[in-house]
Amino acid sequence: MEFKDNEPIYLQIATYVSEQILLGKWAVEDKVPSVRELAVALQVNPNTVMRTYEQLQNQEVIYNKRGIGFFVAPNALRKIKVLRRERFLQQDLPEFFRNIFLLDISLNEIQERYEAFKSENYESEIEQNHENQ
Known about the structure:
Layout: H1 9-22, H2 35-42, H3 46-58, E1 62-65, E2 69-72, H4 76-102, H5 107-121, H6 123-132
Antiparallel strand pairs: 1-2
């Protein structure tokens, strides 16, 4: 995972964990990687992953079974979508609108590219994960 300079690493890891859940790679009630496992996989300090897990636990995306580890919460999908949707609508979308306006990009072109992006990057992955659940 490559980290960006403009956002704290623990928040970027939270985004990564959330995406694993949204994509169905980590299903509801599944155990998530331990702090140590994820720290090694992402090549970060375990304290950074712990901070991420604490935030996700406070947001009710994951929960801790004492002595066993962290698990995906029953309402994790809904919680993640609500949180990320609000962030996207407040922060990312205005910048996106500004750019398409300034560059004179039509909504039809955006729609075509969006459909191509979905089919090239996610459709088979999402279908496969839904079949496995």
